[in-house]
Amino acid sequence: ATSDPKAVSFKTGPYPGFPTDLQAPMMAAQCLADGTSVVCETVFENRLLHVRELQKMGAQIKVDHDTAIITGVEKLYGASVIATDIRASCALVLAGFVAEGQTVMTGVHHFKRGYDSLDKKLQKLGASIIYKSGQDYDDIFNKININNNIKSLNS
């Protein structure tokens, strides 16, 4: 068996179809898969807002209406990204973990409200997640810094 992820294509749908809530995290995984994936979102409109943010990280994704075509890349790169919803926040955090360099995500309130202590669970697995807030931005736009090599953000 190979450890290299292979591209898969899927279409979201109501139960028992592929869950639309897993579309964004699965798309993040497909960014590093070998080959081309086609993802068709059939449940909700505007569920591909995370694509632009993944592209900032080096993902090769083309969108045509409700369909995304993802060509796997060798690596993703840290970037400043914006989480627009709960599912996007999860996708961007996952992409940030495997990205080279630091990823800074705003809109972290989606991540905090969408998952039950997922940050703490991921930290137990070795992830480095640092929340930063201050005068420059209010609580709703807290930033989350994601990097598997962060030593300190005090500069």
Number of helices: 5
Overall, the morphology is globular
Whole-number tally of structural domains: 1
In round numbers, the mean pLDDT is 85
Based on the structure given, which CATH architecture is correct? Alpha-beta prism
Counted beta strands:
8
Return the string of H and E elements: EHEHEEEHEHHEE
CATH topology title = UDP-n-acetylglucosamine1-carboxyvinyl-transferase, Chain
Say what oligomer this is: single chain
- Tell me the helix content: 25-40%
CATH domain class name = Alpha Beta
**Radius of gyration computed on alpha carbons:** 15 Å
The major β-sheet equals:
4 strands, mixed
Poorly predicted runs are 135-141, 149-155
CATH superfamily: Enolpyruvate transferase domain
Strand content: 15-25%
Describe the overall structure:
With 155 residues, this protein is an alpha/beta fold. It has one domain (10-146): UDP-n-acetylglucosamine1-carboxyvinyl-transferase, Chain. Helices cover 27% and strands 21% of the residues. It contains 5 helices and 8 strands. The strands form 2 sheets. Strands 1-2-4-3 form a 4-stranded mixed β-sheet, covered by helices on one side. Helix 3 links the parallel strand 5 (80-82) and strand 6 (103-106). Helix 1 (23-30) runs parallel beside helix 3 (86-98) and helix 3 packs across helix 4. The longest helix has 13 residues, at 86-98. The chain is globular. The protein starts with 9 loop residues before the first strand and ends in a 9-residue tail after the last strand. Residues 135-141 and 149-155 have low confidence and may be disordered.
